[in-house]
Amino acid sequence: MVIILTHEHTDFDALASMLAAARLYPQAVPVLPRQMNRNLESFLAVYRDALPFVRLEDLPRRRIDHVILVDTQTVQPVRGMHAGVTGQIIDHHPAMRELPADWTFFGEEVGATTTLLVEKLVEQGISVSPIEATLLTLGIYEDTGGLSYETTTPRDLRSAGWLLESGANLLIVDKFLHHPLTDEQRQLYQQLAENSHPYQFHGHSVVIATATVPETVEEISTLAYKLRDLYEPDGLFMLVDMGDRVQMVARSTSDAIDVGQIAAALGGGGHSRAAAALIRNTPLHGVYETLVYLLQSHIQPTITVKQLMSFGAPQTLAPDDTLGEAAERMRRYGFEGFPVIDHGRIVGMLTRREIDRAIHHGLERHPVSRYMRSGEVYVTPEDSVETLRKVMTDHDWGQVPVFDPQTGALLGIVTRTDLIKQWSATTPLQVETLAQRMAATLPRPMLSLLEQAGATAGQMSYPLYAVGGFVRDLLLGEPNYDVDLVVEGDAIKLAQALARQYGGRVRGHRRFGAAKWILPDALRATTENHAAAFGYPELPSALDFVTARTEFYEHPTALPTVERSSIKQDLHRRDFTINTLSIRLTPDRWGELLDFYGGRKDLDDGLIRVLHSLSFVEDPTRILRAVRFEQRFGFTIEPRTEQLIADARDLLDRVSAERVRHELELLMAEAEPERAVCRLAELGVLTQLHPALRCDDWLRPKAAALRAQILQVIDPDNQVSPAMSFGPDATPRLHLALLTYPMTPEELGQFIDKFHIRKEYRDLMLEVARLSPQLDRLNENDLQPSAIVRMLAKTSDEARLLLRVATDSWLVRQRLDQYQRCWRHVRPILTGDDLRRMGIPAGRIYREILNRLQAAHLDGEIDTREEEEALVAGTAQQILAGS
Fold first, then answer.
1. 638, 640, 642, 644: CA torsion to nearest 10
2. For residue 663, which of 461, 624, 690, 865 is within the disulfide window of CB 3.0 to 4.6 Å?
3. For 834-848, how does the pLDDT look when each residue is reduced to its tens digit (9 = 90+)?
4. Assigned fold of 435-605
5. How far apart are CA 69 and CA 644, in angstroms?
6. Model's pTM, two decimal places?
């Protein structure tokens, strides 16, 4: 026999879950528990005949082989169960313990267990009667507070909607959810309400209500919902002294308050949202004190200011700065307000609203102190989000300074935008660490080097971060040992400190706050400990450090002006969200991932997204970069970013030739550059660069063929073209030459001039343009090998390889291959010394004779030394006679 069970003191969610399970498993018998809440008893008194429930005493005396347990994870023994019984648990709370063999668990965190089972009914197309729909609705409504509790999910609403469509009666739902209290319950409720004590633990509101009764009062858990509706706390604890014992009932609406853990510490149990405990041999005041202690130790702030704020000294104003200066800073940085600091103390805030009004009235020269919002308003890094929200609400400050409570130092700022982003997140903000991933991915010497750099930065109180492509590729599982390091501090001083400690030298660029620590050649040989830690052969030649900075553009496409800033602002100046990720390297937060702009999610979703709508206006070359990253990673440019590309592509004509050319070279160095080229064509960017550029059915297969040829040439085991003399660095110029191959000479000249194409690229493109007209001649059947050698003798390996790919003629390819393998190596047996011994006077005649000998060999006219000497005799006489 298969039975369906739930917990004692059954509520509507449990009863409704039993009903839904019975509809899903028709062979199973839903068994009513011995103790049910009074409103359930009343409901069943009216509607029991229309429902499939069986009382425990009416259960047939048969062996129970399988149990379906709903809305609980604790089995109440039933007559007929045996040691080998199997079962499955269905609950809307996470599994709390390891299950016995042959038991399974199904659960997801929704508002009610009933929701999970209703979804299965819908999925399997099982209809329900109006009475069944009403009971199922009672189950969802009771556990979600009529769909109003914080734990309610969209799935609960969808399930409730389906039940209403199936005939659920909300009048009946309301009647039984708001069942009248008994006289004993009413008196107890009044006492609990009068003895309710509010607390605040790390920003979370808690109410502890106490009462003393002379005898047991049934269903005191019903009162918990009423008290919660009255006070709306994050956590509610009722302590009822019943003489020989204290009954605790607890409810929670916050992940930060796990009432199940607290109840367990008092000898009870339950789950994170609802729990109870029965405490004996301890007076009420003793239980109360213990409970307060447990709350202090168990409740932690889910999110603190430290997790939201921007570290680093923010832009501030002094009281005697003018409003005109404040307006200029606001225009430059785009901030909505500035803290006003006087001798290290916060004295007020000046917002855009005050500045705009003052400028409108011509008050540019007036001091900030006259129009700022006065007040010493700040938060600390460990303050909770609730504290921050209250500070912002009470003082109407959208930007709140963050001070160190010990030193009084200004650490950074937290804004209303930071708070809104956290509030709108679908899950609580969590700190992700990449320490294990770094340890598993990076070579030990590189990891040690970063650890030492982080430790030195920590000693100087400089937060140090690895940023950009290194972090992105680490998360993608792609090795990238090119590390960019950003310092919230003086990058040059940090590099100098590392050089003093480990050797090497430093090249600094004071204007940009950048430094290069060039690692010492003797690091491995002179310092054994450092060699063991660093393993110099696997290290880069240098580490680059840069001070966290922000940028602003005087006009579209201009090069940016750079100023010192925080890591958050430094990351905001970057091109795409996936490149804004950073990893903290100082020991206190080693490996911690910082994601201010949603880069992690875009990386997971495979999206290329700019940080703001003016990104391509400020730097149009980001258009080429967006396409390059999209095609490299197989991502998609998200729709808004694609629209911004369309709006800004004409600005590419205003960017310096060198910057566009640099991006083109990077694009041509990609594994499959033709994909990016064709995507640029789709976006209308390719013809914006030059009208003659095309991506068509000719380019795609030719680019693939070129790639295969390059791989064959640079393969160390290659035996096809062993004498070709170029390496992987030739790849981008070969692909760019292929892209421009179809151009006319005039178009190619325009392209080269427009983008100031570098010499090694230009020479190849022009050489190919000169050779391409010869392809028709190379395709002639009667062309002698000597003529082919004369055509190709002074050409480069790269140009010939490109011609081989560009031509569609099998004959031309064969002749190019023969030239590469054989013909270019053919030389006469005789030398200039031989000609002198034969009595031929020295001069230009030697070159002409030797060329005729080579041609005769190539064309198969001669083969031996004797034949060469005979040919020389006749040739020399003809040449001398002619001269």
1. -150
2. 624
3. 988 888 888 888 888
4. Beta Polymerase; domain 2 (3.30.460)
5. 55
6. 0.59
